Amino acid sequence: MKTGFRRCGITVLLTALTLLLAARERAQNPAAGSEADRAYRTAMVAADQQIAGEVKAHSELMKNLEYLTTHIGPRLTGSPQMQAASEWTLQRFRDYGIDAHLETTQVAHAWYRGADTAEIVSPIHRRIDIRSAGWSKATSGEVTGPAIFVEFNSAAEAEQYRGKLKGAVVCLGKPTTLPPASEVPANAYDAVIQPSRRGAQPQGLPFQERRRILEELAKEQPLAFLRDSAKTDSLFNMGGAGQAYQPSRIPTAFLTHEDYALLYRLAQSGPVSLKLNLCGTFSPGPVPASITVGEIKGSEHPEERVIIGGHLDSWDLGQGALDNGTGSMAVLEAARTLKALGWKPKRTLTFILFTGEEQGGVGVETFLRNHSSEIPKIDAVLIHDTGTGRVFSIALEGLYETGPFLSKIYQPLQEVFDLEPLSTRTFGGSDHVAFLNAGVPAYFCIQAPAHYREAHHSQTDTFDKVIPEEINEGAAVLAAWAWNTSELPEVLPHHPPRQREP
Fold first, then answer.
1. What is the model's pTM?
2. Which pLDDT belongs to residue 500?
């Protein structure tokens, strides 16, 4: 999961609250609404209960997730492991009797992690752990240079470092202020974007401005860029350094928060010298990157699609369990469940396991490009991408015009799974954003934190962190939402396409 977030304006929020209060009233008063609405709601409650029962009795989610994380392992986009995961999930869909296929694009280069090393040379001598950022250019062997912390709030302030960084190891911003242990995030998404963590510079700047500044700093020819992992307990973070699957201009790496803070304290007292060796390598040319697409054809409107999805790719420090083995295997389990029940949906149910979500959404863009003529017939999308915690709501994503329709879909879910009301929050940072940009109603599962702050992009993103009963319920919610949407008499309205967000 990537991170990003916008808050709603007060006018829009009041509109949403009005819709949600009306939806809650209908949920509390079954007599409300038309006879057709009552019949739909009764049928969906019964169906959702059967879905929950099938998952509880026969789920294969944990078996599939264990194989994915243990035998295939972490899955960088374009890596042999990611391609193996795509081929394996293709076979799993077919094992369940579901029509499935791969849709394949290419990325410029695969990137392979090396055995990176770092040590403080002076004023103390100490080896420290270091991990290259994804698609980071390697250093030219062991390199040594002064550690210089750069701090700025704008491109203008960054000008002060012109002519001062050549041959230096540039530390990007002061150490991050971590949230206190007493600060409990409201959901898994907030666990990794808490406001108290967003002040680190230049990470706290808008994306485009940050990129421009880093490009200017790169012209100064530093030896490397270093980032604070911004996690407790010596956990690493991970993210990308290069753009469009190309090598970065400057070697870039993460230190643990503890070691980054140590460097900062030392630098406040005098010069600090570092020795680094970053060892990542690249494929010589383009490599394949595939998404897995399964379908249960609609009986009345086969040209219309209801999509549930999650990304199969991961970063490579852990096993890719909570980000996003859980979401992708929940989608697979939802597909198995609906096929096992033998029902005939009115609309085509589509199950997508994306690739490249962690590096800009190459998988979802591939699907939208391949199916561009079908976009007006995509009824709705729901994405699962924040770990193992219980799904307790679905985000409306600013689509207030869809509120009355989504409320009808959602009311049976509330009754069967004891969900909270629809959320008025607007989220970013996952594969649903590309659908939103294309004008498609697309929504996001909101989940309990469940160790997500620690596991997200770190070496502790491992199978043992998974909570079976909670992720299995998440699979049932996905399946039930997909079924309810497929059977809805109305079609959810599309909106004008939006400008693509970075």
1. 0.92
2. 66
